[in-house]
Design a protein that fits this description.
Blueprint (H helix, E strand, L loop, with lengths): L3 H4 L3 H6 L2 H13 L10 H8 L2 E2 L11 E2 L3 H17 L3 E3 L7 E3 L1 H7 L4 H4 L15 H9 L3 H20 L7 H8 L14 H24 L7 H27 L7
Parallel strand pairs: 1-2
Antiparallel strand pairs: 3-4
Helix pairs in contact: 3-5, 3-6, 8-9, 9-10, 9-11, 9-12, 10-11
């Protein structure tokens, strides 16, 4: 099994990590806990992986870290353990009081090349997303279906623009965006700003639709980076904020204000 020292060789680095960072880095060692070590709990894990090295007494009597870090390493490991429990990555083992095992999600993260990065999709805050995409897109993102999550987010923008602009179902994609945000005639255009900004807003929506929604309508677009996926979803979220604002303004305005 991988030793904690193999995963984090430097004791000073280990004790400087936040509980979530250390907990995620501990997962590969937790996932490979052998049955001959007995039940897996915080104390047994710390005894095996975080005990201090005693010079001259051999590895069998000590662990990988200098003895002067014993208290700090033990404290850091216990804090990380509690974070893993709170995050439902460590769960009580059925039928064995006091023992723990990895949850299904923790097992997937532990097998990833970079557990911290593998956990990154969970950092997209569901409550920060627009109601139009919150449930479906967040769920897809959490399940790692990144291509579909981005497509659904941009489709949410398309539907919201069509509804707010009062345009027909035959208007889709770039054609819809150009009509809704046309600098001179668009129902969602902000006529209170100068012409260059109105053109830029039209370009923003058309560019987002052409770059991130239309390609996925016609071919497979492989997205594997959770950070990039989150950025694209948040772009769609920002566009939806604009649509909501312009839709309210259009609904309350008696007519267009000329430049």
């Amino acid at each position: 099994m991988p030793n904690l020292n193999e995963l984090i060789p430097d004791a000073e680095v280990l004790v400087a990590l936040e509980p979530d960072e250390l907990g995620l880095r501990m997962l590969p060692a937790l996932a490979s806990w052998p049955s001959w070590q007995g039940m897996l709990n915080a104390q047994s894990f710390a005894d095996v992986h975080a005990r201090p090295n005693v010079p001259g007494q051999g590895e069998a009597l000590g662990g990988p870290y200098p003895a002067r870090y014993r208290a700090e390493v033990g404290q850091a490991v216990r804090e990380a353990w509690q974070w893993l429990v709170g995050a439902a990555l460590l769960i009580p083992s059925p039928g064995q009081a006091g023992a723990f095992s990895l949850s299904r999600r923790a097992d997937r993260i532990a097998r990833a090349p970079d557990p911290v990065r593998a956990h990154a999709p969970r950092t997209l805050r569901r409550e920060s997303l627009n109601a139009a995409i919150r449930e479906d897109v967040w769920s897809l993102f959490q399940r790692g279906r990144f291509d579909t999550a981005v497509f659904e987010a941009m489709k949410g923008v398309e539907v919201a623009v069509r509804t707010a602009a009062g345009l027909g179902n035959e208007m889709v994609g770039l054609k819809l965006m150009r009509a809704a945000f046309h600098p001179e005639t668009g129902p969602l255009t902000d006529y209170g700003v100068e012409g260059g900004e109105r053109h830029a807003r039209s370009d923003l929506f058309a560019g987002a639709m052409g770059s991130y929604k239309n390609p996925q309508s016609h071919r497979h677009v492989a997205l594997s980076d959770p950070d990039e996926t989150a950025e694209l979803i948040l772009l769609a979220n920002h566009l939806l904020r604009i649509v909501d604002e312009r839709g309210r303004a259009a609904a309350g305005a008696p007519g267009r204000v000329a430049e």
